[in-house]
Design goal:
By secondary structure, this protein is of the alpha+beta class. The protein is 53% helix and 19% strand. It folds into two domains: 198 residues, no CATH class; 201 residues, no CATH class. It is built from twelve helices and twelve strands. A hairpin with a 2-residue loop joins strand 3 and strand 4. The longest helix is centred in the N-terminal third of the chain and has 42 residues. Its main location: membrane.
Length: 408
């Protein structure tokens, strides 16, 4: 072991060390430990929230989505579908018609987001984890069209799946009509659907009603046009790479985005919040570590005779600096190790047992999401090392200079 560390360890565990200096050192250790543990836990919570949001997006949003550059609809041809399917990594293409509409059930009505999908939707089984009642079928055995309804719409309209008499009526304004009175039934096209399934993800998707694309097309008078094409990416392929390949294949006439790009604002906000919290907690650790500065300064005063003796024995100023730097490192790293271990254990317990609830119900998780990333733990350790060097260097240099003065 290096001589500077041997002396620093002896100073750290010395029974003759004055109680006040020892108390400050222990406070510094506790402060670093608490700050380190808080950083590990908070960064892991942000990782968990980001992971949870990606799971939520995956439950409803497509791996890759193609929309028109301008307007709400575009013409879909067999050649376009063939071009998309020729791209490596494309597993399935779903045609989508989506727009706002009015839903009526019994004597109640509400504005909804009507999403028409083709029969590939049933094969995807994308909403399986979010289904809370009924099934995800679009047509019954006798050709009866079904609607898959969000929990928010079900609650707003008091829809019962057991009621086979009352239909869910969807209304959409007629195009190219001369009727000026929008309260007149003649101003709307109507579509009758039977509620077949209820899903719940989160409030963001609580206004959706999913129906067969052919009926939604007829209701909204799209005449074969589509709002979007949703792509399912084959296992083993990255959504971003497939999205870029489709964009290159189709040219600039379409907007092609992968799932993360579709939700880029929210994911960017989470990353920015994580960055600001990491900086804030780093400053808190720095404030806690200032106690190391005071404890080392007073230790340098207490050990000035020892420092002078070391100089008399031929010690160089660099050795004195190393001793006090090592002393600061022992105090800080002891707190950091305790903090890292405590933070990892808290995260593991939350992952394993879910002690802290989110306080709201979701179809995916009940407890607060936590995800440990070793890169964050490494970042925390590096921050503690940098702070230790910063707060220990000045007392170490002063101790070396004071020893030189005493020797002279």
């Amino acid at each position: 072991m290096d001589l500077s560390y041997r002396i620093a360890i002896r100073y750290f565990f010395s029974k003759n060390k004055r109680s006040f200096i020892s108390l400050i050192a222990r406070i510094a250790m506790a402060g670093v430990a608490v700050g380190t543990m808080a950083m590990v836990v908070v960064l892991s919570v942000f990782n968990g929230m980001e992971d949870l949001n990606r799971k939520i997006f995956k439950t409803f949003d497509a791996d890759v989505k193609i929309t028109p550059v301008t307007g709400k609809r575009f013409k879909v041809t067999d050649q376009l579908i063939a071009d998309i399917r020729s791209v490596e990594g494309v597993k399935q293409v779903t045609q989508v018609v989506e727009d706002n509409a009015l839903a009526r059930y019994g004597n109640q009505q509400i504005y909804i987001r009507l999403k028409g999908v083709d029969n590939t939707f049933e094969v995807q089984k994308q909403l399986d984890t979010a289904l809370i009642e009924g099934s995800l079928k679009l047509y019954g055995p006798n050709g009866t069209p079904y609607a898959i309804i969000s929990e928010g719409i079900r609650n707003a309209l008091s829809i019962s799946l057991e009621d086979i008499i009352t239909p869910l009526e969807v209304l959409y304004p007629k195009l190219d009509t001369k009727v000026l009175n929008l309260t007149s039934p003649e101003a709307f096209k109507q579509l009758a659907l039977r509620p077949g399934g209820i899903f719940f993800i989160e409030n963001r998707y609580d206004d959706y009603v999913i129906a067969p694309v052919a009926l939604a097309d007829s209701l909204m008078q799209y005449r074969g046009a589509r709002s979007a094409l949703e792509i399912v990416v084959a296992p083993g392929y990255k959504e971003k790479r497939v999205s870029d390949s489709i964009g290159q294949k189709l040219g600039g006439n379409y907007v092609v985005k992968d799932r993360d790009s579709l939700n880029s604002d929210l994911l960017r906000a989470i990353k920015m919040e994580k960055l600001f919290v990491a900086v804030t907690l780093s400053l808190i650790i720095l404030v806690a570590a200032i106690n190391i500065f005071f404890s080392l300064s007073m230790l340098a005063i207490e050990k000035k005779n020892d420092v002078s003796m070391l100089y008399s024995l031929g010690a160089e100023p660099s050795l004195i600096r190393k001793i006090f730097l090592a002393e600061g490192a022992i105090v800080a790293l002891s707190g950091a190790i305790v903090g890292l271990f405590g933070g990892v254990m808290l995260c593991w317990l939350q992952i394993k047992y879910g002690f802290v609830s989110m306080g709201m119900s979701t179809s995916l998780v009940d407890a607060y999401p936590v995800k440990l990333i070793w890169g964050d733990i490494l970042y925390t350790g590096v921050i503690v090392v940098i702070i230790t060097v910063l707060v220990s260097y000045i007392p170490a240099r002063r101790a070396a200079d004071a020893g030189l003065i005493l020797r002279v």
